[in-house]
């Protein structure tokens, strides 16, 4: 049999099998697709984070591309600072605000996850999030803000891998240096200098609480604008810190 005939014969048998085994064909196709999707995840990049600092994140690229589409200049202010130079009050304020069990969990806060689902179902909207600091870092570095199920599944896989690969201190250092604190302002050092005219190493307890208060939506709520939200949220963070003896 000629090679071309053999290929054609094989193709016909395959099509016949697919036609008669539609469910299995669908399952295999989905499996192959997921294998390709998850095989392309940046596991190697996460390993590199042990010794190197990323120069750009997925969110930074998205912000830059959005500015280019709108014909606007893209401003990026970022200055790296080691975790050892960041005051305990800043670290505690961020953890209390964003992920109270950060030091204890393995990447996922299942209690918060359950509470989030129950509240969102009750209110019929996304009223409460449950992403840990590690999940937020993974999304910021490698994924998009979209909420489709595949993106969320990728986030979970990468979160688990990051927790297995990096120390908690390194995860927190990356998070504090990469997240956005206003349009074009990335990281705690840049935000401290922009809003308070000082290094992050000199931030006060109240300033730490104000910075932590706007993390969920730094483009809507500004650290340097007196609003009811900022006052209420920063006071809540300070109260939680005091209650924990921090």
Describe the structure.
This protein has helices spanning 3-20, 22-39, 43-48, 58-69, 88-98, 110-123, 133-142, 149-165, 168-178, 188-196, 205-213, 228-243, and strands spanning 77-78, 185-186. The mean pLDDT is 85. A two-stranded parallel ribbon has the order 1-2. It starts with a helix and ends with a helix. The protein folds into two domains: 1-40; 43-243, Penicillin binding protein transpeptidase fold, CATH 1.10.3810.10. Helix 5 packs parallel to helix 11, helix 5 crosses helix 12 (228-243) and helix 11 (205-213) packs across helix 12. The chain has 246 residues and is an all-alpha fold. Helices cover 61% and strands 2% of the residues. It is built from twelve helices and two strands, in the order ααααβαααααβααα.
Summarize the structure.
The chain has 12 helices and 2 strands. It is mostly helical.
Count of domains = 2
CATH superfamily of the largest domain: Biosynthetic peptidoglycan transglycosylase-like
User: What series of H and E elements makes up the topology?
Assistant: HHHHEHHHHHEHHH
CATH topology of the largest domain: Penicillin binding protein transpeptidase fold
In whole angstroms, the N-to-C terminal distance is 79 Å
Strand content: under 5%
Helix proportion range = 55-70%
CATH-derived architecture of the largest domain: Orthogonal Bundle
Number of helices: 12
Main-sheet strand order equals 1-2
CATH top level assignment of the largest domain: Mainly Alpha
Task: Jot down its keywords.
Penicillin binding protein transpeptidase fold, elongated, single chain, 2 strands, 246 residues, 2 domains, mainly alpha, two-stranded parallel sheet
